[in-house]
Each structure stands twice: as structure tokens, then as C-alpha cells.
Design a protein that fits this description.
The chain is of the alpha/beta class. The protein has one domain (7-232): Vaccinia Virus protein VP39 (Rossmann fold). It contains nine helices and seven strands, in the order H-H-E-H-E-H-E-E-H-E-H-H-E-H-H-E. It has helices at residues 13-20, 23-34, 52-57, 71-79, 111-121, 141-145, 154-162, 176-188, 197-218; strands at residues 42-46, 63-67, 83-85, 96-102, 122-133, 166-174, 225-232. Strands 3-2-1-4-5-7-6 form a seven-stranded mixed beta sheet, sandwiched between helices. Helix 3 (52-57) links the parallel strand 1 (42-46) and strand 2 (63-67).
Length: 233
């Protein structure tokens, strides 16, 4: 099964520059993973792009394998001394302690087949953490530009999990203020899907920390993204 490239790999300068400036947001994503790892774990970064998160995470585990099919991105990660395979089918069954996938599943047309492959490589009782964009009402020109097949809801993620050998241990929305910002972007933003670097920097510096505080109350119902944590049974 060939996994499509993640949003990191799209070469639009506006997107890459904008997301590189989301330092608090990226630090939050890394923290979601590192807090779950042991030094002896074998870990997979599923849809690793250019290795932005892998570089920050590899020191927290014994072995990190990046799954990325795009030749250009593989070359970039190889230059960073990351361990890369082009397809998850190259990983042996039941050998992985933890797998994470950040903003990738929305790029995969057959996400059910992808999740079944995730289940195959994980050891029994191992955890997968999947982070995806939420709410189809927010689907905008930016989603289309970067190749999103969909945005998710809790219901659609439960349906997805039902197709694989998993049980849900965590399912919640993230970034409630981001939901409002994304809705505003859809209604008032430009039609070519570009992002303003300055707007991203402003949001990341001033609003995202507030959003994370509010998430403690709003996470059951509203957010720009969803965190799905599942255990292989």
C-alpha cells in the first residue's frame, strides 16, 4: 500500500513558510508523542514528509522508522540521517511499539486500508496516535490545494477504527479558537488556498496558547483538529 505524501511535502512556499512559523503548534504536536514514549520503543512516523517531527522525536525512542513514498522527501530525510522506508508494507508485522501520524490520513484516499496496515505492524496492545483536521464544514480552498480528501468528525473516525483491529482510548477535538479562525478563512479568505505567514505567526504566538486552555472545556464538542488514540487488540 503506497501512502500519499503528507502536507509537508507540498511545495507551495506560502504553506511551508507559514507552518514553519507555527512553533508553539509544532511543539504541542511533538509533546503529544514524546510523553507516550519509552527509550526502548520502536516507533513509526507514518507519512513523515521532510522529517520535521521525526528529527524532534527520534532521541526519545530506541528506533524510529519514517514511512514516506516521495523520492524528494526521502532524500531530504536521508540527509538528516533518518531511517526511511518508502512503504509501510516493508515493515514486519507486530514489530512496532508506537505509531504516530500527524495530518496525513486526510491525504489518503483509502484511509481504511491504511489503518489496517497500521494495525498489522503494531504489537498487541501497542498505541497509535493519529492527528487529523476536523469538521467538513471547514473544508476550504486550502484543503483542496494541499490534497485533502476529507476532514473528519468523531463519527467518521469511529467508523474508520471499526474497519481495523483497534479500540479507541482517546478521541477529542483540539484548538477551539482555530475552529473559528478556519471558519472565518473559509468565508472570507482567498480562493487560491494561500496562507498569510504573518497571520499564522500571530495566531501561533497569541491565540493558540489561549485555545489550548479553552480546549480543557471545549474538547468534547469543538475544535479545528481531532486527536485519535487507539490500542491494537
Amino acid at each position: 500500500m503506497n501512502v500519499p505524501i503528507s502536507s509537508e511535502a507540498y511545495t507551495g512556499t506560502d504553506l511551508l513558510e507559514a507552518m514553519a512559523e507555527a512553533k508553539r503548534y509544532n511543539k504541542f504536536l511533538v509533546s503529544l508523542i514524546t510523553c507516550r514514549l519509552n527509550e526502548t520503543d520502536s516507533v513509526v512516523d507514518f507519512g513523515a514528509g521532510i522529517g520535521t517531527f521525526a528529527v524532534a522525536i527520534e532521541e526519545s525512542c530506541a528506533n524510529l522508522v519514517c514511512v514516506e513514498p516521495d523520492v524528494k522527501q526521502i532524500s531530504i530525510m536521508t540527509s538528516k540521517n533518518l531511517n526511511v522506508v518508502s512503504d509501510i508494507v516493508r515493515i514486519e508485522s507486530e514489530t512496532i511499539d508506537f505509531l504516530y501520524s500527524l495530518n496525513v490520513f486526510e491525504h489518503i484516499e483509502d484511509d481504511h486500508a491504511a489503518l489496517r496496515e497500521v494495525a498489522r505492524v503494531l504489537k498487541p496492545n501497542a498505541i497509535a496516535l493519529i492527528y487529523v483536521p476536523a469538521r467538513n464544514i471547514l473544508y476550504s480552498a486550502m484543503d483542496k490545494k494541499v490534497g485533502h480528501y476529507r476532514r473528519y468528525s468523531k463519527r467518521s473516525l469511529r467508523t474508520l477504527v471499526h474497519s481495523a483491529n483497534f479500540e479507541i482510548t482517546r478521541l477529542e477535538y483540539v484548538d477551539c479558537i482555530g475552529f473559528i479562525a478556519a471558519l472565518g478563512y473559509k468565508v472570507f479568505g482567498n480562493s487560491n488556498g494561500d496562507l498569510s505567514v504573518e497571520a499564522v505567526k500571530f495566531y501561533d504566538r497569541y491565540l493558540f496558547p489561549i485555545s489550548r486552555l479553552l480546549d480543557k472545556i471545549t474538547h468534547p464538542a469543538i475544535g479545528k483538529n481531532l486527536i485519535l488514540e487507539v490500542r491494537r487488540v
